[in-house]
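Supplementary Methods. Inverse-folding protocol.

Structures were first reduced to a discrete structure-token string of length 425. This string, shown here, constituted the complete conditioning input.
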């Protein structure tokens, strides 16, 4: 008997009909002789609707109360799903995050899982029931309060349950057929990836691919959980995300594709610190100030200093949501650091090309830059890792950039990808 964890996103349980359809799928998995644990998201866009509601009441909702509110979304879908399964003659039991033992730290809205004690889930399985767990929510022992794991956190719930219960596989059901070489909503000729390493998937997720959340991929990688990302709208095989260092995967011929996929991200902004004295310690000073804000810095570029002035410019990218705080904090330290001014640019787009095969291939950046040049797209920043090359362009050219790069690397499929609707979650 296998233990299968299945996660259904909001678009898969958007209304009563969808819930019945998903219930049928779950029952089929159970009837095939598997133990089944389900992590479920809130119906459709209901998390966003609850957030809107909170902001209609107050511009700055209290974090504890916001978590109370948002976790109601998953409580609705889990109960409806359990009812639907029961009405089909199978035993099912729903559990909130705290009942399922998702123990987190106390950070409301962004809690991290510190322990998983799924005793009640295990008991339900032992009694032959299907366990339905509310995604995205946890519980802090110190405060005794309900927490949430950050947007898209149901993926993390599923992976954490799979790890704690030693599941054979963790299936992530969504509204596309798997992970694609690019977002099929932007690149219709995007190709479904059959297998991808968790290392590559992490880079794609960190660079804007929304099909899986980065924290879920990190958790899966750390705990050796194999993921199967697939559509809840058909029975097609999806994409396997595996740990290339796992014993069971080591024997497989790991033929690393040159490029796994291309991701884009429009959520970042660029700050340029203009006229920084080109002497040791200035970068340290600037980024220590930035670090205090907790902002996640992504790309950093420092120009060669103009010899005549002894000054240099330092640019970096960061989430737009952190932009204002970082600007304010840096401005407060302007005289101390001694820079001339700050520039803020929120009209940037980032494109990242990811592939484990890059490690051993020299021509990748040349090909990327040539494709962008031929499309008349200007590159503003470049950064690389062993398995990734990222460039920053103007925001309004990034989708064109995505399409030409996808074609240039021979990733286009023969036919268009099927998107079943929804927002990609
Ligand atoms: N419902 C939550 C959200 O929309 C969690 C999830 O969907 O995974 O962010
Ligand atoms: Mg959702």
């Amino acid at each position: 008997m296998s233990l299968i964890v299945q996660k259904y996103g909001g678009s898969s349980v958007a209304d009563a009909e969808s819930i019945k359809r998903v219930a049928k799928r779950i029952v089929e998995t159970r009837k095939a002789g598997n133990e089944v644990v389900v992590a479920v998201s809130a119906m459709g866009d209901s998390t966003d609707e609850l957030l809107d509601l909170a902001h209609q009441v107050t511009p700055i909702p209290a974090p504890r109360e916001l978590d109370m509110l948002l976790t109601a979304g998953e409580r609705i879908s889990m109960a409806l799903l359990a009812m639907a399964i029961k009405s089909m003659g199978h035993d099912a039991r729903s559990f909130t995050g705290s009942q399922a033992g998702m123990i987190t730290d106390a950070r409301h809205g962004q809690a991290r899982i510190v322990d998983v004690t799924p005793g009640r889930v295990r008991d339900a399985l032992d009694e032959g029931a299907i366990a339905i767990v509310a995604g995205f929510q946890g519980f802090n022992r110190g405060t005794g309060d309900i927490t949430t794991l950050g947007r898209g956190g149901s993926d993390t719930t599923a992976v954490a349950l799979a790890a704690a219960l030693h599941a054979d596989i963790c299936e992530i059901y969504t509204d596309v057929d798997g992970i694609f070489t690019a977002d099929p909503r932007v690149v219709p000729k995007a190709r479904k990836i059959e297998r991808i390493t968790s290392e590559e998937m992490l880079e794609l997720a960190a660079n804007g691919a929304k099909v899986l959340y980065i924290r879920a991929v990190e958790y899966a990688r750390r705990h050796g959980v194999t993921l199967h990302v697939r559509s809840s709208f058909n029975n097609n095989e999806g994409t396997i995300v595996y740990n290339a260092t796992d014993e069971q995967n080591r024997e497989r011929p790991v033929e690393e594709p040159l490029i796994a996929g291309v991701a884009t991200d429009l959520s970042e902004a660029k700050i340029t610190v203009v006229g920084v004295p080109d002497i040791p310690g200035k970068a340290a000073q600037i980024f220590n100030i930035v670090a205090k804000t907790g902002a996640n810095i992504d790309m950093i570029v420092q120009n060669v200093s103009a010899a005549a002035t002894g000054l240099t410019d330092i640019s970096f990218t960061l989430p737009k949501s952190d932009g204002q705080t970082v600007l304010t904090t840096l401005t407060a330290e302007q005289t101390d650091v001694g820079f001339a001014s700050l520039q803020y640019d929120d009209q940037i787009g980032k494109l990242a090309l990811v592939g484990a095969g890059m490690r051993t291939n020299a021509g990748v950046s040349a090909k990327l830059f040539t494709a962008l040049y031929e499309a008349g797209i200007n590159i503003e920043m470049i950064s690389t890792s062993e398995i990734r090359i990222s460039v920053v362009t103007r925001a309004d050219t990034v989708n064109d950039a995505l399409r030409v790069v996808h074609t240039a690397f021979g990733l286009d499929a023969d036919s268009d990808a099927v998107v079943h609707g929804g927002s990609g979650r």
